[in-house]
Amino acid sequence: DSGVTQTPKHLITATGQRVTLRCSPRSGDLSVYWYQQSLDQGLQFLIQYYNGEERAKGNILERFSAQQFPDLHSELNLSSLELGDSALYFCASSDRPITGGQETQYFGPGTRLLVL
Amino acid sequence: GESVGLHLPTLSVQEGDNSIINCAYSNSASDYFIWYKQESGKGPQFIIDIRSNMDKRQGQRVTVLLNKTVKHLSLQIAATQPGDSAVYFCAESSWGILTGGGNKLTFGTGTQLKVEL
Fold it and tell me: Closest-CA residue in chain B for A39?
């Protein structure tokens, strides 16, 4: 158990809908990362937040957005869903201050999203 | 329609043998490398890491080797056990000066390790 929690575990929805995925980082971790893992793309970095502020952006679609709240939990919002958005969405948190260099990311169990 | 999945390379080993999983990385500016293990239905789990100023690091039953000249990383698992069966990913990271200070991880496509009894 990494200490990172994600809800819900599974989500089934229809095209065009909007969903919110939630992540609680490990106690004390200030950084939260979101990743998408699909069958044909592997693990792709989406976005990072540090202490409430966006710090890095990867291959995140404009239909997707995220935020990190004062209690450090984070939400990933996916809107106008398409069939191709079906994937596993992972949240990770890390334990180092953002001063540069190495930090280990600990992953949650993921949310499996199925868009029908 | 038919879905197309990643064709993961597969390594099959006998229980008790040593396993070597290889990874080629692309960014010569990467200064930190991590191996993750992902079991079916679970999130990636940290195994071991290595910084670019090292060429070898050992953990419990695992060793990571880094060859910066050819941008190659390997994970060695000693006395492989059935519980080691999983997909193994290498990930590279560089301090995100260009990305605003984030430590973005770039993952390889993964290798499926199958341990045969």
Answer: B5
Residues of A in contact with B47 (CB under 8 A): none
Asked if residues A115 and A86 have their Cβ atoms less than 8 Å apart, the reply is yes
Q: Give pLDDT tens digits for B67-93.
A: 999 999 999 999 999 999 999 999 988
Return the amino acid letter for A34: W
What does the block give as tokens for B102? 């984030």
Q: Do B44 and A108 touch (CB under 8 A)?
A: no
How does DSSP classify residue B70?
T
Give A68-105 pLDDT, tens digit per residue: 999 999 999 999 999 999 999 999 998 765 555 567 88
Rounded Cα distance between A45 and A56, Å, is 9
Cα R_g (chain B), whole angstroms:
15
> Six-digit token pair at B21?
């999983």
Q: Do A102 and B51 touch (CB under 8 A)?
A: yes
Per the DSSP assignment, residues forming a β-bridge with B77 are B19, B62
Selection from B45, B90, B47, B36 nearest residue A3 by Cα: B45
Contact A45 B31 (CB under 8 A): no
Which of chain B's residues have a Cβ under 8 Å away from the Cβ of A102?
31-32, 49, 51, 93, 103
- The letter for the amino acid at A8 is P
Q: Note the pLDDT of residue B4.
A: 41
Cβ–Cβ gap B101/A90 under 8 Å? no
